[in-house]
Amino acid sequence: MHNIITESEERMKKTIASLKEGFGSLRTGRASASLFDKIKVDCYGDKSPLNQIANITIPEARLIVIQPWDKGLIGEIEKAIRSSDLSLNPSNDGKVIRIAVPPLTEDRRKELVKTAKNQAEQTRVAIRNIRRDGNDELKKLLKEGEITEDEESKVSGELQKLTDASITKVNHVLEEKDKEIMEV
Q: How far is CA 154 from CA 110, 142, 148, in A?
């Protein structure tokens, strides 16, 4: 019975972690290495994550410097960044790639906030689905006579508290991301 709570809690934590990861790749007005987490570069006939073939540094708030470990990949890295949906304009000097992160327009900020809210809502739905799965499991145990109605009611209440806490966390993560996006 307690494994229903433990399992649900783990799944909810993973769902929130996934949301945070998704928010990391949403471009805000400031430079962040996590923008490049989803970028894959053609490297020796294979697609490799950018952060595994180059060093990504943020020397100042609106500047990103990418230094490939193999200088021969600089063109491929630049091509991968240009073809991504980040709308960034990289320039290279043969040794490193520099990217000036332009401030976001008001329309783009609103669009990003809308995207963030959609992702957060999908996460809330996923959390409520996890609660439903837990409650379904409880009903099955009750039907099979493995637990009493009191036990089912108690664990269902714990599951609801867990769900409420998780949704509060999602709202907090969204609020932080909204602030970051709207920051000028």
A: 43, 12, 10
**98 backbone dihedrals φ, ψ, rounded to 5°:** -115, 140
Look at strands 97-100 and 91-92 and give their pairing. antiparallel
Residue 160 CB coordination number (10 Å) = 13
- CA 111, distance to chain mean position in Å, is 17
How is the chain classified by DSSP, letter by letter?
Answer: -HHHHHHHHHHHHHHHHHHHHHHHTS--SS--GGGGTT-EEEETTEEEEGGGTEEEEEEETTEEEEEESSGGGHHHHHHHHHHSTT----EE-SS-EEEE-PPPPHHHHHHHHHHHHHHHHHHHHHHHHHHHHHHHHHHHHHHTTSS-HHHHHHHHHHHHHHHHHHHHHHHHHHHHHHHHHH--
Q: At 8, list the tokens.
A: 């649900």
Q: Rg (Cα) of the chain, in Å, rounded? A: 22
Beta bridge partners of 48: 41
| 86-142 residue pLDDT tens | 778 898 888 899 998 887 788 888 888 999 999 999 999 999 999 999 999 999 999
Length of the chain: 184
Q: What's the whole-model pTM score?
A: 0.72
Region class of 37: left (phi > 0), else alpha (psi between -120 and 50), else beta:
alpha
Q: At 30, give phi and psi (nearest 5°).
A: -115, 155
